[in-house]
């Protein structure tokens, strides 16, 4: 790992390193793992990228809940593939995070001990199969709004992981929309299931973008470092403007009496989510927080023998190679 705190001998010192770092940021070039970086930049990235990776892995649970109860073989195959994609996204992001000098094992420990967060959205339950469609449409839709600008984030490994993830997320969003469209063309009962699901997920989807800008402690510094490219409120607005016409095509409404087009702003006005509820969910008191972490902890403990076997095999291979060389 690059030493981020002391200047190598023979250079102009930390001030020069900082100037080099700031020049890279101001030219919109990438910072790479071997480059010098301020400690705060490294810590902020570990926090955000780890939180993002954890979200992908914990995010497998609400949809995974329906794999065994999918209504057809086709829907089951689609859902299995989507949940597997999320595992893959988690792995790209853990790998990107490891380039900052922290191991995947440490990150997993921090998640299951509650020292790192994951997205609030995954602490809500999935109560009907329509939720699989709504998660694809609204949750992956919100994720795309948030993540497309992150393809241009200033840290190379994170930006490159995001490019691949965004391609798959777009596909996920379309599969969700297609599932909901199929249900909307079905019976009255199916249409009611879709509307009920959208009613439950709309506000939590808006919370995914984080607190309002004037209550977001990290945004200003993360924007100055080029980690974030847009503020939380900008991205939330973009998501609302994108979703309203899609809802019309589907034939569903959003549960917000304040939602209307503002001609002057050329954007939608909309109400605020319940930010007290958001804070409760983020602090661990949402409907499914305990269950999600307990499940993740159990999976980690169940997998201990696999990690031990892989470590023992790697050590054995190394000693076989060394004996061969001797
Ligand atoms: N949930 O200063 P702020 C997916 C925390 S998964 C929980 O604005 P920041 C998918 C925040 O961490 C996609 N916590 O923070 C997977 C901070 O606390 P700490 C997940 C939240 O970092 C499976 C505090 O509140 N996407 O797509 O500048 C199936 C103050 O916030 C949340 C990402 O992870 C939240 N919603 O901005 C389907 C995107 N919001 O850490 C789909 C990457 C805020 O200081 N992350 N907090 O203790 C980001 O873009 C930014 O981290 C955020 C927050 C916009 C989320």
From TrEMBL:
The keyword Oxidoreductase applies. Keywords: Oxidoreductase. Pfam families: PaaA_PaaC. GO terms for cellular component: cytosol. Transmembrane segments: none annotated. One of its GO terms (biological process) is phenylacetate catabolic process. One of its GO terms (molecular function) is phenylacetyl-CoA 1,2-epoxidase activity. Its EC number is 1.14.13.149. SUPFAM superfamilies: Ferritin-like. This is Ring-1,2-phenylacetyl-CoA epoxidase subunit PaaA.
């Amino acid at each position: 790992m690059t030493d981020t705190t002391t200047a190598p001998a023979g250079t102009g010192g930390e001030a020069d390193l900082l100037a080099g770092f700031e020049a890279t940021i101001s030219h919109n070039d990438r910072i790479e793992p071997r480059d010098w970086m301020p400690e705060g930049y490294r810590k902020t990235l570990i926090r955000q990228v780890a939180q993002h990776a954890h979200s992908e892995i914990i995010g497998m649970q609400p949809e995974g809940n329906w794999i065994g109860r999918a209504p057809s073989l086709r829907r089951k195959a689609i859902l299995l593939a989507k949940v597997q994609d999320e595992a893959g996204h988690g792995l790209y992001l853990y790998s990107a995070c490891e380039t900052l000098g922290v191991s995947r094992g440490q990150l997993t420990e921090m998640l299951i001990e509650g020292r790192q967060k994951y997205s609030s959205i995954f602490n809500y339950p999935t109560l009907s199969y329509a939720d699989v469609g709504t998660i694809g449409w609204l949750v992956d839709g919100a994720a795309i709004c948030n993540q497309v600008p992150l393809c241009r984030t200033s840290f190379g490994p994170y930006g490159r992981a995001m490019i691949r993830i965004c391609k798959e997320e777009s596909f996920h969003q379309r599969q969700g929309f297609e599932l909901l469209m199929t249900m909307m063309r079905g019976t009255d009962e199916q249409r009611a299931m879709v509307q009920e699901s959208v009613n439950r997920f709309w506000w939590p989807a808006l919370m995914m973008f984080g607190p309002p800008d004037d209550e977001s402690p990290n945004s200003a510094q993360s924007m100055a470092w080029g980690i974030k490219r847009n503020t939380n409120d900008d991205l939330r607005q973009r998501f609302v403007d994108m979703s309203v016409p899609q809802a019309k095509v589907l034939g569903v409404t959003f549960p917000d009496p304040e939602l209307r087009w503002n001609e002057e702003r050329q954007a939608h006005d909309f109400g605020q989510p319940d930010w007290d509820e958001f804070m409760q969910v983020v602090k661990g008191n949402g409907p499914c927080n305990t269950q999600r972490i307990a499940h993740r902890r159990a999976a980690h403990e169940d997998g201990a023998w696999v990690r031990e076997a892989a470590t023992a095999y790697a050590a054995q291979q190394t000693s076989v190679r060394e004996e061969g060389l001797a």
